[in-house]
Amino acid sequence: MQILFYEKLSKNERCEALKRPAISARTEIQAVVAKIIKEVRELGDEALIKQALSFDKAEISSIRVDEREIKKASKELDSNLKEAIKVAYKNIKKFHEAQLFKPLKVQTMRGVNCELISRPIETVGLYIPGGLAPLFSTALMLALPAKIAGCKKIVLASPAKINEAILFVARLCEIDEVYQMGGAGAIAALAYGTQSVCKVDKIYGPGNAFVTEAKRQVSADINGASIDMQAGPSEVLIIADAKANAEFIALDLLSQAEHGVDSQVILVCVNEDLALRVSKAVQIELERLPRKEIAKKSIANSRIIIAKDLKQCIEISNEYAPEHLIIQTKSPRELLAHINNAGSIFLGAYSPESMGDYASGTNHVLPTYALTKTHSSLNLSDFCKKMTVQELSKKGFKKLAPSVEILAKAEHLEAHKRAVSVRLKCL
Q1: What pLDDT was estimated at residue 25?
Q2: At what angle do helices 394-410 and 414-426 cross, to 10 degrees?
Q3: C-alpha span between 239 and 244 (Å, rounded)
Q4: Strand order in the sheet with 324-328
Q5: Is the pLDDT reported for residue 132 higher than 80?
Q6: Residue 136: exposed, middle, or buried by beta-carbon count in 10 A (0-12, 13-18, 19+)?
Q7: Over the stretch 260-284, which tens digit does the pLDDT of each residue have?
């Protein structure tokens, strides 16, 4: 891995050191995705069946997965994997149940009552990537908060042929409908509906560049659907002091690097010796990975930055604003108060990112590409919407009315003023 001394870098060089890999061929992808969306809107299921054969090399006759097939896959799944999924289920459920919103009621002045209440989004669509890494863990991360929030209809889509573990999770979480469809076509079907696919209000879940672009396009269309977030390639930044375990760090870096060729991993440390040991450990561990060719390309986008002290490490991390932040220092919790921008934070040598990805209980659907400066990690509130309520007694109305009349008049909104004045006369 490339090693950089932060103090020796110019302002421009520092910006380059924290630059993400470019998302290539954006214009080309936009055109391809637009064509796929148009095809799904015009042909519905027929387009999805054709795309399954073309993109996923799967010959299917229907989009919706039959309940018998889901039961069969759930029964045949390895029992040890089932039990591990249930452990994750329990922890994720517990953490997200604790996030349930408590209605707020405030009397802003005597006789003027204001409330904040919550309602679930009625129909939601969960997109789960398939391919080389079928993310059944993501199905848990999306289905459980949707269920806890009280969404009336929850549907799941994943490329054909759907992995057995994803079908098991769908059954475990009581998903209403499961569709075998993938990529931009699946996003289009969820956003607009087809003969078999239910149109949803909001779409959740990660995916490749085509899925991400499709989510962008349907969310920009008033007739489409809302989305959870624009998620880019996976990333992790690790802050480490001189005493950190180099092998632990190397494997944490590779945990993200193996996600995809455009993933990025960064170590920010205060010690050159640790930097060299981590770089060596990365090369050793890399050769043991089944997905080493993917990880190698990701490592090419990655680097080790040596800072002058932990304070500068934090400054670098906050500027980069990582999706995942791991802090492997002697007293990691002492640094937490100074962290402003991160999707999910892992404190200490025995809190690897793998725990949050699967089973600690926190959600692994996170903003990337520095969006953690303004966006939150996925949580229960993403499956709800808030409404305000106000109720005024006659006394409260009379007390507040003169101020509202003055304000409305100053803004030249006469109907607003008269709506108050007429009522005053009635009193």
Answers
A1: 58
A2: 150
A3: 9
A4: 2-5, 303-306, 264-269, 235-240, 324-328, 344-347
A5: no
A6: buried
A7: 888 999 999 999 999 999 999 999 9
Cβ neighbour number for residue 305 with a 10 Å cutoff: 24
Contact 269, 275 (CB under 8 A): yes
CA 4 – CA 13 distance, rounded (Å)? 10
In one-letter notation, the amino acid at residue 300 is: A
Helices (H), 258-375: 272-286, 292-299, 310-320, 333-336, 353-358
Enumerate the active-site residues. Answer: 323-324
For 105-127, the pLDDT digits (tens) are 999 999 999 999 999 999 999 99
d(CA 99, CA 380): 6
**Listed residue (299, 300, 303, 329) closest to 314, CA to CA:** 329
- Asked if the model's pLDDT at residue 47 lies above 90, the reply is yes
Cross-sheet strand order for the sheet of 112-120: 104-109, 112-120, 384-392
- Looking at the chain, the whole-number percentage of residues with pLDDT higher than 90 is 93
Residue 395 has pLDDT above 90, yes or no: yes
* CA distance linking residue 62 with residue 368, whole number of Å: 35
User: Any idea how long the chain is?
Assistant: 427
Q: Are 204 and 382 in contact (CB under 8 A)?
A: yes
User: Which residue is associated with the tokens 């573990």?
Assistant: 165
Tokens representing 194? 């087809």
Q: Sign of the C-alpha dihedral, residues 190, 193, 199, 201?
A: positive
